Amino acid sequence: MTVKSKHIRIKGIKDGLVFLLDDKCPFEELLDELRYKLEHSHQHILTGPIVHVDVRMGERTVTDEEKESVLDILRRPGNLLIRSVECVETKPVEELPAMAVMSGILRSGQVLTHRGDLLFLGDVNPGGSIFCTGDILILGALRGMAHAGTEGNENAIIAASLMAPTQLRIADIISRPPDEWETRESSMEFASLAEGVMQIDKIHHIVRKRPELNVFKGV
């Protein structure tokens, strides 16, 4: 097999070798050339004593598996001791928190806006408002206004330890609370939409809207 040497340069330095790998060529071509150099055109570097090797992969972004495949080829001769590897490693995608957590007291005239789901630890007083593109869960009293699914998400929910809002809104559906909310304790409830109509239910029924929250599923 003949491989044209164009993607890899091997440079001698005072205390070893530097492998300069092209960061623009297809990765498989790079591996093929590296194998060829070590097995054919550059066998002389494999016949001596231990040689320290520095690997430079330029601006190529590589996974751990790709980097290991390069190192595997370099380790095969037995006398090449890998001292360093410089490359741009693929970083794992950082997962956004499933739910942001905020705390405090939202007083009259104050507005809290959030992209995503929100767990709010505290009370929302009359005149206070929360707007979220996702779910709103309030570990406290909701006596102000809450708008979940602000960008049209009709699957969003609003839940509170004490549900006594001045107004609830999910996506474009608005519901004003019944008069009896002013005189009764309405604890641990959540609001959701069913066929375009807002419904209020006890929090332990939330698995009907969020089946993935049922820890006893399949038990």
UniProtKB/TrEMBL annotation:
Segments forming domain Septum formation inhibitor MinC C-terminal: 103-195
Pfam families in the record: MinC_C (PF03775), MinC_N_1 (PF22642)
Keyword list, A-Z: Cell cycle, Cell division, Septation
InterPro entries noted in UniProt: CAP/MinC_C, MinC, MinC_C_sf, MinC_N_1, Septum_form_inhib_MinC_C
Entry-linked SUPFAM superfamilies: Cell-division inhibitor MinC, C-terminal domain (SSF63848)
Domain Septum site-determining protein MinC N-terminal: 9-85
Superkingdom in the source lineage: Bacteria
GO annotation, biological process: cell morphogenesis; division septum assembly; regulation of cell septum assembly
Subunit organization: Interacts with MinD and FtsZ.
Function of the molecule: Cell division inhibitor that blocks the formation of polar Z ring septums. Rapidly oscillates between the poles of the cell to destabilize FtsZ filaments that have formed before they mature into polar Z rings. Prevents FtsZ polymerization.
Sequence similarity: Belongs to the MinC family.
HAMAP family: MinC
Record-given protein name: Probable septum site-determining protein MinC
Species name: Paenibacillus spiritus
Gene: minC
